[in-house]
């Protein structure tokens, strides 16, 4: 990977779009897969691919409302082999309380009190065109795409570790990123912010077309930091970039962006194949690696700089401090937020 060309900028994006994605080689599925954000777009397309794989026994799907969860299950029913059990759950990543309730529901669905998960694919995301708050005190994009994704990653670790024990092979945690992260707010700006990384991004005056890309950059930094805390023999962490795909995620953008998407966006099925291959790929998967265009490659070059490394460590500390504070005094406070890593 060290000899790969620089991936930053618009020119590199067009160069990547010219790359031939390797043919999809259907992997053998682990027995239980959890897919967050499965009701539309890349998530729904990924669910259809997962149902076609050999070895799958349980497919656990989430959407942000009970109605959407049921619609997803009905939509997939005709594709579901008799040997596969589909379960749907409600989780709204705009609300941290919804996440803890989801974890409790997930575990309550198992007779043992802890549901084992072999692979978790965290795919949910939003891209609003104006500043709005989630259910807490953070801007919606930052809340859903980063804070809640980080929280969910931590809360699922016991389930993933149990999955590793039951299967005698590493479980996998896959965080979906975006090509957009190459166009994030410069790391130097985040590094020099006076009120912290998350505080800076949460300011209404700092909301812009770079908020979504920056939320995805934070996800990469968090995934890399988390991978350094975990034993890959237990839980292997990958960050997957499906590429810019033609989905409803971009529905709120102006017409120049919609034209760009029409001309250069990847079709949803191809993007979903990249996600599935990156999440379930064979023994060659790189712990903490960035998987894009069907191969392990490089994220934004600044990630590897000294300042990028320092920002990653600072973000990790900020994030854990935030999550601990959010759950302080709560009867439902998941202990792993306080004790993980």
UniProtKB/TrEMBL annotation:
The keyword NADP applies. It comes from the Eukaryota. One of its GO terms (molecular function) is oxidoreductase activity. InterPro entries: NAD(P)-bd_dom_sf, SDR_fam. Keywords: NADP, Oxidoreductase. The keyword NAD does not apply. Pfam families: adh_short (PF00106). Belongs to the short-chain dehydrogenases/reductases (SDR) family. This is Ketoreductase (KR) domain-containing protein.
């Amino acid at each position: 990977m060290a000899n790969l060309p620089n991936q930053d900028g618009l020119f590199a994006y067009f160069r990547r779009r010219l790359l031939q994605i390797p043919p999809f080689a259907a992997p053998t599925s682990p027995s239980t897969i959890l897919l967050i954000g499965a009701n539309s777009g890349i998530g729904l397309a990924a669910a259809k691919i997962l149902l076609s794989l050999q070895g799958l026994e349980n497919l656990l799907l989430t959407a942000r409302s009970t109605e959407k969860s049921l619609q997803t299950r009905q939509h997939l029913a005709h594709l579901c082999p008799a040997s596969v059990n589909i379960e749907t759950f409600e989780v709204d990543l705009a609300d941290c309380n919804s996440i803890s309730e989801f974890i409790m529901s997930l575990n309550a669905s198992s007779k043992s009190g802890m549901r084992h998960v072999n692979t978790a694919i965290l795919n949910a995301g939003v891209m609003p065109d104006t500043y709005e708050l989630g259910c807490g005190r953070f801007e919606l994009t930052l809340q859903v795409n980063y804070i809640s994704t980080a929280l969910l990653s931590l809360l699922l670790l016991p389930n993933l570790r149990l999955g590793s024990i039951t299967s005698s092979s590493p479980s996998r945690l896959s965080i979906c990123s975006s090509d957009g992260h190459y166009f994030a707010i410069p790391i130097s700006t985040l590094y020099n912010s006076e009120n912290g990384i998350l505080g800076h991004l949460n300011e209404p005056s700092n909301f812009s077309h770079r908020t979504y890309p920056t939320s995805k950059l934070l996800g990469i930094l968090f995934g890399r930091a988390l991978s350094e805390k975990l034993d890959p023999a237990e839980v292997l962490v990958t960050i997957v970039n499906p590429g810019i795909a033609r989905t409803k995620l971009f529905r709120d953008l102006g017409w120049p962006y919609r034209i760009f998407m029409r001309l250069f966006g990847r079709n949803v099925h191809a993007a979903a194949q990249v996600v599935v291959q990156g999440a379930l790929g064979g023994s060659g998967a790189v712990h903490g690696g960035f998987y894009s265009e069907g191969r392990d490659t490089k994220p934004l070059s600044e990630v590897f700089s000294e300042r990028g490394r320092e920002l990653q460590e600072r973000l990790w500390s900020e994030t854990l401090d935030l999550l601990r504070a959010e759950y302080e005094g709560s009867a439902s406070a998941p202990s792993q937020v306080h004790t993980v890593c």
